[in-house]
């Protein structure tokens, strides 16, 4: 269909390019700040927590940018094959991430209610959270049943499981359970010393 607008294709491509750059900027900002936050908590290399004089986590931004540029290399080596695979794998990974967030919300919400620290309340809880969990689980089942998406699902599941186990292991090492205190063995009752002998009150005789 022709719109009759001169250079409409160029304008459309420019709009798409600006939208992609905006999405890239937002993802770069979020990824770098997430790396910085993880580094501050000791869950990422400490060097990523260093900031410039303007309080910018430059090393985290550089690391996120390096990973972004590294993802372009497979597409250059295998044109038309690597990018769709990465996009599909990202979709499955996002589903696992949202599933973990929903399960965390289901557990932590009740914990905050018990301790009285709940500030923001979600309407319809827990029905809305359980609905989200059910919908994501249904999508994962559909991906497992489809031969086209099954490899990406299995790859994302293996990666998510490896990251979860690594995180649990690191958390256990950082916060070990306190050793059970063993009760000291019962000491034998000490025998009270015998009272001193009372001196005789009878007068001494020669």
Automatic annotation (TrEMBL):
The chain crosses the membrane at residues 12-36, 56-73, 85-108, 129-147. It is a multi-pass membrane protein. InterPro entries: AA-permease/SLC12A_dom (IPR004841). Residues 2-151 form the Amino acid permease/ SLC12A domain. Residues 169-180 have a biased composition (Basic residues). One of its GO terms (biological process) is transmembrane transport. Residues 169-206 are annotated as: Disordered. Its main location: membrane. GO terms for cellular component: membrane. Keywords: Amino-acid transport, Membrane, Transmembrane, Transmembrane helix, Transport. It holds the Pfam family AA_permease. Residues 197-206 have a biased composition (Low complexity). It is found in: Membrane. This is GABA permease. It comes from Streptomyces hundungensis. The gene is gabP_4.
């Amino acid at each position: 269909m022709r719109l009759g607008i001169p250079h409409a294709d160029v304008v459309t491509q420019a709009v798409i390019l600006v939208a992609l750059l905006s999405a890239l900027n937002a993802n770069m900002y979020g990824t770098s700040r997430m790396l910085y936050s993880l580094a501050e908590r000791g869950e990422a290399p400490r060097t990523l927590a260093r900031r410039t004089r303007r309080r910018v986590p430059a090393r985290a931004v550089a690391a996120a940018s390096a990973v972004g540029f590294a993802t372009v290399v497979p597409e250059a080596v295998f044109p038309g094959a690597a990018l769709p695979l990465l996009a599909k794998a990202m979709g499955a990974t996002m589903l696992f991430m949202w599933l973990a967030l929903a399960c965390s919300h289901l557990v932590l919400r009740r914990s905050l209610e018990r301790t009285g620290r709940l500030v923001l309340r979600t309407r319809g809880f827990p029905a809305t959270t359980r609905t989200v969990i059910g919908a994501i689980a249904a999508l994962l089942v559909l991906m497992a049943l489809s031969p086209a998406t099954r490899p990406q699902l299995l790859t994302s599941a293996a990666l998510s499981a490896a990251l979860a186990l690594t995180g649990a292991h690191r958390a256990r090492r950082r916060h070990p359970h306190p050793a059970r205190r063993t009760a000291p063995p019962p000491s034998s009752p000490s025998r009270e010393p015998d009272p001193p002998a009372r001196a005789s009150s009878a007068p001494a005789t020669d």
